[in-house]
Amino acid sequence: MRTEEEQVAAIKSWWKENGKSLVLTVAVVLAGVFGWKAWQQKQANDAEAASIIYQNLVQAVAVSVQQGAADDVTTANHLGQQLKNDYDGSEYAKLGSMLLARIAVDQKNYDAAMKELNWVLENEPSQEMTSVILMRKAQVYLAQGKPEEGLAELNKVSDEAFKAAALELSGDLQLAKGDKSAARKAYEQALLANSDSGSRQLLTIKLDDLAAEQEG
């Protein structure tokens, strides 16, 4: 067995050879830990800030929709752009862009609405949000009198949860095209896929209107 002096000498020798690298390793680990905590804190702060801006945006949009106030529209556009510029990776930025598209549609500024909806698609939305955006694009095309383009967007909607709504919108687009037979078929399929009583009632009205037109 080593004597106490030999053990001390061995420790000193090991520390001389490995001490610097050990200190460096500890420093790197600590820097990583504190860096991770700082990053987490920044993420939390950014999320809170984005949330506040988004809440203000929702309020501005609500007022602009109800009252049509130009100042509130300007405020909403400013807040939406701030979200996109400062927190572009957040869900709040995507939701904000969707609200800006809503305002643009209300103002019949369809090009601006398309720009906002396309921005969301370019920023990795969830599958559900993607389906919503595609359907809103189809609605904008319908408002523009471009049913073919709208149908092309609807063909990309694969989420089963939106099947009934997509079929109804497809019927609206087919009707805008002048293809009443295709519109009727889409409405009938939507009726079969839809369990919501209010939506079913509206679909029934649309089918009855089509039948009346064809009889007339």
Automatic annotation (TrEMBL):
Membrane topology reported for the UniProt record: Single-pass type II membrane protein
Domain Ancillary SecYEG translocon subunit/Cell division coordinator CpoB TPR: 12-211
Pfam families according to UniProt: TPR_21 (PF09976)
InterPro entries per record: SecYEG/CpoB_TPR (IPR018704), TPR-like_helical_dom_sf (IPR011990), YfgM (IPR026039)
Subcellular location: Cell membrane
Keyword annotations from UniProtKB, A to Z: Cell membrane, Chaperone, Membrane, Transmembrane, Transmembrane helix
Protein family: Belongs to the YfgM family.
PANTHER family: ANCILLARY SECYEG TRANSLOCON SUBUNIT (PTHR38035:SF1), UPF0070 PROTEIN YFGM (PTHR38035)
Protein name listed in UniProt: Ancillary SecYEG translocon subunit
